[in-house]
Specification:
Number of helices: 10
Order of helices and strands: HEEEHEHEHEEHEHEHEHEEHH
Protein name: Bacterial extracellular solute-binding proteins, family 3
Helix content: 40-55%
Strand content: 25-35%
Structural class: alpha/beta
Mean pLDDT: 91
Distance between the termini: 52 Å
Strand order of the largest sheet: 4-1-5-12-6
CATH superfamily of the largest domain: Periplasmic binding protein-like II
Number of domains: 2
Pfam family, one: SBP_bac_3
CATH class of the largest domain: Alpha Beta
InterPro entries: Solute-binding_3/MltF_N (IPR001638)
Number of strands: 12
Low-confidence stretches: 1-24
Length: 237
């Protein structure tokens, strides 16, 4: 009887130990600086996306760390297994090969931006052949432009550099996130009327989670998505 109790106690301690080890496992999320979604304020990482992702992971009781990298590197780290997820991102086939897109957290509008005196129109068939397009490096917009055979220049690491290049007439147009552009214009006290704006498409934003991590934690994504849906329903995080 004593031997049975002792064995049972050891088994329970083993289970408890396993739970603690799992609970203590910290995940690494990579991101980029992309106002207003991810910003530095007084040396702290903040922004609308950072707030939501942090709150969801805390509600899930999942230890985490968020690190900022150049956007292309942030994605490659997940592909290489050095991180478990990256955000904010929209869906594409390249990312789908090694990670899974979460429930969408924010809407996103892609727009074409041209200077007022530029006669080109993105809706014309000749635009793809003739226009030079500015785009952020490592972005889904860059992936889409290349996949659809536009003449894209994607060496820009942030929205500020992208807009300044267009204002300097380095190309005919830029493809960019509407909220990010509006945020820059407001910060610089510039009117939207400096551009001709044409809608491109809607591409919702979420978190990409490593397929390897999800295979090892099969219930994680369902729980994360459930909290995302709660956030979108209540918007009180």
């Amino acid at each position: 009887m004593r031997k049975c109790i002792s064995s049972t106690a050891v088994f329970i301690l083993f289970l408890m130990s396993g739970v603690k080890l799992y609970a203590a496992e910290k995940i690494l999320l990579t991101t980029q600086i992309w106002p207003p979604y991810q910003v530095y304020h007084d040396h702290l990482l903040e922004g609308t996306a950072v707030t939501v992702v942090k709150n969801i992971l805390e509600k899930m009781d999942v230890p985490y760390e968020i690190k900022v990298y150049p956007w292309e590197r942030a994605q490659v780290m997940v592909q290489a297994g050095a991180a478990q997820g990256f955000f904010l991102a929209s869906k594409n086939s390249k990312r789908d090969a090694y990670a899974t897109f979460s429930e969408a957290i924010f809407p996103q509008k892609w727009n074409w931006y041209l200077l007022r005196n530029n006669p080109l129109n993105p809706n014309d068939e000749s635009f793809k052949e003739n226009a030079c397009i500015l785009v952020r490096f490592g972005s889904n917009m860059q992936h889409w432009l290349h996949a659809n055979h536009y003449k894209a220049v994607g060496s820009f690491k942030n929205t500020d550099a992208l807009i300044k290049a267009l204002l300097a007439k380095r190309c005919d147009a830029m493809l960019a996130n509407e909220l990010a552009i509006n945020n820059y214009l407001q910060k610089e006290s510039l009117p939207p009327e400096i551009f001709k704006i044409y809608p491109n498409m809607n591409k919702p934003l979420g978190v990409y989670w490593s397929n390897k991590y999800l295979a090892e934690n099969p219930e994680f994504l369902e729980r994360f998505n459930r909290f995302v849906k709660q956030y979108k329903a209540a918007e009180d995080f």
